[in-house]
Design a protein that fits this description.
alpha+beta, 3-stranded mixed sheet, 5 helices, 6 strands, elongated, binds zinc ion, ATP-cone_dom, zinc, ATP-binding, ATP binding
């Protein structure tokens, strides 16, 4: 890596530290020519293997555009979509794999999307989990209802 100050083609690493989530390494470097210091950060590349067999870099923008379709007409903001894409990337990176299936990306979207908007979730799940019949929708809805009820019951009851 060239020194950003004098363009010297070489540099020396003086310090390395890993970010809290373990996904990024920051290095402090010093230029042997002008002695100035600069930082670089290093992230493992994450590839998505598409059904066609083509592999491409993971893209949060693609996650967002896929989810946005399912969110049409729903009260979901761009900020929420950006947060969702970030969660998806974090959960995929935490699996430690360098390359994942496009289908796996879709599955990683389901949980955060369910928390965001259940209708959008159902639309999305019907594609990624291959809902074929009305029964598939019914069982998904029954599960959503059961989970909503469970969450409701976990709220502490007031004394008396
Ligand atoms: Zn330099």
């Amino acid at each position: 890596m060239h020194c950003p100050f004098c363009r010297h083609p070489d540099s020396r690493v003086v310090d390395s530290r890993t970010s809290d989530d373990g996904a990024t390494i920051r290095r402090r470097r010093q230029c042997p020519n002008c002695s100035r210091r600069f930082s670089t950060s290093e992230t493992a590349s994450l590839s998505v293997l598409k059904r066609s067999g083509v592999s491409e870099p993971f893209s949060r923008a693609k996650v967002i555009s896929g989810v946005r379709k399912a969110c049409q007409g729903r009260p979901v903001s761009d900020d929420q979509l950006a947060m969702l894409a970030q969660r998806v990337e974090e959960s995929i990176r935490s699996s430690g794999q360098a390359e994942i299936d496009a289908h796996q990306v879709g599955l990683s979207i389901l949980q955060p999307l369910q928390e965001l908007d259940v209708v959008a979730y159902l639309r999305f799940a019907s594609v990624y989990q291959g809902f074929d019949t009305l029964e598939d929708f019914e069982s998904a809805i029954a599960r959503l209802r059961a989970e909503a009820k469970q969450n409701g019951e976990s709220v502490p009851e007031s004394a008396g």
